[in-house]
Amino acid sequence: MAVKENVRPGGRSARVQASVHKAVRALLQSMERTDVTIPLIAGEAGVTPSTIYRRWGDLQELLADVAVERLRPDMRPVDTGSAKGDLEAWAEQYAEEMSSGIGREMIRDVLAAQDNANACKCYAFTREQMELIGDRAQGRGERFPPVDAVMDRVVAPIIYRILFGDAPSADHVRGLVADVMSSEAVAATPPLPVSARKSG
To answer: Where are the alpha helices (DSSP H) in the chain?
Structure first.
């Protein structure tokens, strides 16, 4: 069953979402994942099960929705002073967080949902972070590869290894960054002219 609402709600709907999300996180910390049910979540959140079914459709869609909110970045990428340093710092932290037990569970929850809207949101979150790093690099007059190249050659290999192999090491992640930063894609992306950097 598809998610009933895809926009971020306001007012009472926002309070219901916050309460249900909090209940899910609390139950996942206190009991086995396979024992968590919608009636238990409803009781913990102080809402009726029908409220949850009406809004999320089923348990997996709710778990995916909770995972997406936890995957939403809560800060801008670290500014290290260089494009390569910024991308390395972001990628190493991303790989560490996503390969943790909680990170793997969140990835599985998002991918297990029937509606791919939540997966698209995760992609958009990550792409936005790459765009921020790229914009910062351009503002410094540095070259930076196209965002699609970074997604394909840094982010995608990290997630693939987490899903189907061992967690990528810091050395491996730095190698991915070095590869994309030294590629022909970077050479083809001119830095902003000085006048544009000053006006921005």
So the answer is: 11-30, 38-45, 49-56, 59-71, 83-98, 101-112, 117-140, 147-150, 156-164, 170-181, 184-187, 194-199
